[in-house]
Amino acid sequence: MRTEALDRVKLVFSLFDADGNRYLEADDFELMAERVIQAVPEADEAAKSAMLAGFRKYWTTLVRELDANHDNRISFDEYVACVLAPERFSEAISEFAESLVGMGHLDGDGFIGRPAFTALMRAIGFAPANIDALFDAFEPTDADRIAATTWITGIKEYYSPDKAGIPGDHLVATPTT
C-alpha cells in the first residue's frame, strides 16, 4: 500500500467522523448524506435518493466486512483494511462515486460545472483550495466543466492502494496558491 493512499483515506476518515469520536458510525453517514444532498438543492429527487443510497451502501459495506465485534462502529484501522481492498469495497465505491457525480450532473449532458462540484466537495468537508486544485487537475473545459466520467474515475482511483500522483492527491496536499 502506498503512503499516498493511506494519506487519502486518513483524510476521508476524519471527514466522515462527523462527531469526532475517532469511530465511524451509521449516524456519521446519515449526517454526511444530508449535507451533500443539501449542497445542491436543485438536484432532482432521483439523484438525492441515489446519494442517500450511496452513503448507506458505503456504511453497510463497512459494517458487513469489518464489524466483527458487532459494536456498530468502525475504527480507523478497520476502515483502512476495507476501503483499500478493492475486492471488498469496489462495489460500494462505484455506487458512491456514481451517486455523488449524479448530484452534480444537473442537466444530464455528461459534464459537471465547478459550482456544483465545489458545493458537493465542501459539503463533504474538503478545503476550498484543495477542491479547486482537484477540479483543475481534472482538466476542465473552457466552460469550466469536467466530464462526469472523469470524476467517477477520480473517485475510484482515490481508494486505490497502488495509485500515486493522481488528481485525488490534491485533496490531501497543502495547497500552493
From TrEMBL:
EF-hand domain residues: 4-39
Residue intervals passing through the bilayer: none
InterPro entries assigned to the protein according to its UniProt record, in alphabetical order: EF-hand-dom_pair (IPR011992), EF_Hand_1_Ca_BS (IPR018247), EF_hand_dom (IPR002048)
GO molecular function: calcium ion binding
Organism encoding this protein: Peterkaempfera bronchialis
Source superkingdom: Bacteria
Name the record gives this protein: EF-hand domain-containing protein
Matching Pfam families: EF-hand_7
